[in-house]
From TrEMBL:
One of its GO terms (biological process) is dicarboxylic acid transport. The keyword Transmembrane applies. This is Na+/H+ dicarboxylate symporter. It is a multi-pass membrane protein.
């Protein structure tokens, strides 16, 4: 009876059921505007609930973590190592994407006229109105108004202010303890709120996927099935091999990470939203043996600077579009593509619909027709689901890797947590 209860109530299973039901409803009522009318508000409410809890958790956790470090030199070293790690892994992700596209040629044999039904106009408008340079990104890290950054949900300036505020709290000693206790209280309370919000995840997933399938239909996947398979295959390879090697070097296993994060992986996949799992992966990585100061800094920062899945997707899609137009990308041109993606992915950090924006900027720079982005609009949601999973796993592992690099990873605590997960089956 006890096992039956766990089986029935497991969050992962509930989310999968919500996903299947959403696909079924969307497929049955394909093209029916009533699905969007009734389900989209439900999905939006769920996403709003997630966004509501992210900022308070990031701010309070960072203040507590940074105040615990209390040394600006140590924090600077941590930041330097984090950026080096992010750049290295992101570069490898781009190379894996280019390798997959060169080997499997997902754009070869695709009927370009069959795909020419989607307008590029909306994506062009997004690109022109949301253009950011790399310099703009670094300038905007420093907020002119912290409360404006809070209201817009822009993580980078929030992280910057939280770090400075945490250092300030640490510097005033005993006077800062009430502030530290207050922030710790906020963090604890918000993690409780997170657990309550996660109970609504299956309903949110049902609504979000139902609307998507009703809009585009399952049939829209068929002409681009080769691109979907290539992208998914490259992302699975990246997680199991590249991140697997990183996990091994960090003293753990990628399969242990997946086991711990199974609920978050399913939720991230079905919602295509990294934000939906940010609070939980911070909490779980801390339980897994990473210091609070590292998890609260590395993981939120990674949401802007360590988008492995997004850059991998962009490299594959750029070559896919070149292939359907019959454009040959030479080796030097592909090296240029790597450099452009590395810069553009940072310059567009925090922009809504950033993957399309970065892709447009990249295509224009390397001489590929930007109109080609319209060809993948119908399946972008399917690809977005996969790249979100890679982003989540990559940023979770980054916390472990940086903790190991700093000599702060508690392997004993991590092993105890793994054993607890194995024995209980699911950790709240």
């Amino acid at each position: 009876m006890k096992k039956l209860k766990k089986f029935r109530c497991g969050l992962a299973l509930q989310i999968v059921i919500g996903l299947v039901l959403g696909i079924t409803v969307g497929a049955i009522f394909y093209g029916n505007p009533a699905v969007e009318t009734y389900l989209e508000p439900i999905g939006q409410i769920f996403l709003n609930l997630i966004k509501m809890i992210v900022i308070p958790i990031v701010f309070s956790s960072l203040v507590v973590g940074v105040a615990g470090v209390g040394d600006i030199k140590k924090l600077g070293r941590l930041g330097g190592k984090t950026i080096i790690y992010f750049e290295l892994i992101t570069t490898i992700a781009i190379i894996v994407g280019l390798g997959a596209a060169n080997i499997f040629h997902p754009g070869s044999g695709v009927n370009i006229h069959e795909l020419s039904k989607v307008s590029i106009k909306s994506y062009m408008n997004t690109a022109t109105s949301s253009h950011h340079s790399l310099a703009d990104t670094f300038v905007n890290i420093v907020p002119s108004n912290f409360f404006e950054a809070l209201s817009t949900g822009n993580l980078l300036p929030i992280i910057f202010f939280s770090v400075m505020f945490g250092l300030g709290v640490a510097s005033i000693g005993e006077k800062g303890k009430p502030v530290l206790n207050f922030c710790q209280g906020i963090a604890d309370a918000m993690f409780w709120v997170t657990n309550q919000v996660m109970r609504t995840a299956p309903i949110g997933v049902f609504a979000l996927i139902g609307v998507t399938i009703s809009k585009f239909g399952i049939a829209s996947l068929i002409p681009l099935i080769k691109l979907i398979i290539t992208t998914y295959g490259a992302m699975i390879f990246f997680i199991l091999v590249v991140l697997g090697i990183v996990a091994k070097l960090a003293g753990t296993s990628i399969f242990k990470m997946i086991r711990i994060l199974k609920d978050e992986i399913i939720l991230a996949y079905t919602t295509a939203s990294s934000e939906s799992v940010l609070p939980k992966i911070m909490e779980k990585m801390e339980k897994f043996g990473c210091p609070k100061a590292i998890t609260s800094f590395v993981i939120p920062t990674g949401y802007s600077f360590n988008l492995d899945g997004s850059t991998l997707y962009q490299s594959i899609t750029a070559l896919f579009i070149a292939q359907i137009y019959g454009i040959h990308m030479s080796f030097p041109a592909q090296i240029n593509l790597v450099i452009v993606l590395l810069v553009a992915s940072k310059g567009m950090a925090g922009v809504p619909g950033a993957s399309f924006v970065v892709l447009l900027a990249t295509l224009g720079t390397v001489g590929i027709p930007m109109e080609g982005v319209a060809f993948i609009a119908g399946i972008d949601r399917v690809l977005d689901m996969a790249r979100t999973v890679v982003n989540v796993v990559g940023n979770s592992l980054a916390a472990v890797a940086i903790s190991k690099w700093e000599g702060k990873y508690n392997s004993v605590k991590g092993q105890e947590y793994i054993e607890n997960v194995n024995s209980v089956g699911e950790i709240a």
